[in-house]
Amino acid sequence: MDKSCFLFERDHLESIRNFKLSLKARNKILSSGEFIDDHILDSFSMTFSKWGWLVSRNRKKLVGQLQETFSEIIEELSGGQLSGNLEFVCGWKNGPGQSSDHLFEKLKENNERDRFRKSTSIGPQLDDFDVLLHGKKARKFASQGQQRSCAVALLLSVVKLLTESGMKQPIILMDDVSSELDANVRMRLFDIVTRQDGQTIITTTEETLIDDLVPQRVFRVENGIVRVES
Asked: CA geometry: angle at 46 spanning 26 and 110, to 5°?
C-alpha cells in the first residue's frame, strides 16, 4: 500500500517517517518500566495520532481508488470467472474516522492495556487490506494461480490509476510471469499489457511462452551471456 501511496500522495513519505518515529517513542516510554503520568502519555499519543491518522487515511483512500479497476481487471484476466473486490482493514476499530481525534480517543481507551503490554496495541502498524474473490478472502481460499492473478491485477490497477491521473506510462516489469498462470490467463494478461502505451519487460524460463507473444525484441540469457535474438 505504501509504495503505491508514495506515487499519488507525495506527503505520504513524510507521514510514514513521522509515524514510525512517534510509534517508537510511544513504545519506548511504555516499556520503560516506570510509572507513566496520563498527561505525559497523552502527549505521545497526540503526536502518534496526528501522523498515524494521515497514514491510514491515505491507505484507505488508495484501496478505494483501486477498487473498481481491480474488479474489472481480475474479471478480464479470469475470463469472467472471478469476481474480485478490495477491502481496507484499519488498525483500530471503526477507523480511520474523520480526523486524528478518532485515533487519539481509541488510544486513551486502550491506555491500561498498552501499559500492561508495554507497547502500542492499535494503530496503522496493524493496517492491512484483503483481496476478496466472490466475497471470500483470497489469501485463505484462493488457489496459487488465483492468488498470482490477484497480484498481477493489483499491479495493473496501480498502473491504470497512475496513467488516468495524468502521469507518464510506467515501465512494467514482470519477472517469471509464467509461474502458476495457465495459458488462457497468460494470453489475457499479454493482451492487457500490449494495449498499454508504455514498455513492458517480461522474463521467463519457458521458451513456449514466446509463442503467446508478439514481442518487439527477445533477449536470451545463457551462462551469463546476453544475446539478442530478435
From this structure: 65
Cell numbers representing residue 171 in the block: 515501465
3-state secondary structure 70-102: HHHHHHHHCCCCCCEEEEEECCCCCCCCCCHHH
Which domains are seen in the chain, by residue range? 2-170 (1.20.1050.90), 171-230 (3.40.50.300)
- 5/2 Cα distance (integer angstroms): 5
Output the tens digit of pLDDT for each of the chain's 230 residues. Answer: 999 999 999 999 999 999 999 999 999 999 998 888 889 999 999 999 999 999 999 999 999 999 999 999 999 999 999 999 999 999 999 999 999 999 999 999 999 999 999 999 999 999 999 999 999 999 999 998 899 999 999 999 999 999 998 888 889 888 887 667 888 898 899 888 888 888 888 888 887 777 767 777 889 999 999 999 87
Cβ atoms within 10 Å, residue 148: 17
DSSP state of 33: -
DSSP letters for 107-133: HHHTHHHHHHHTS--SSGGG-EEEEEE
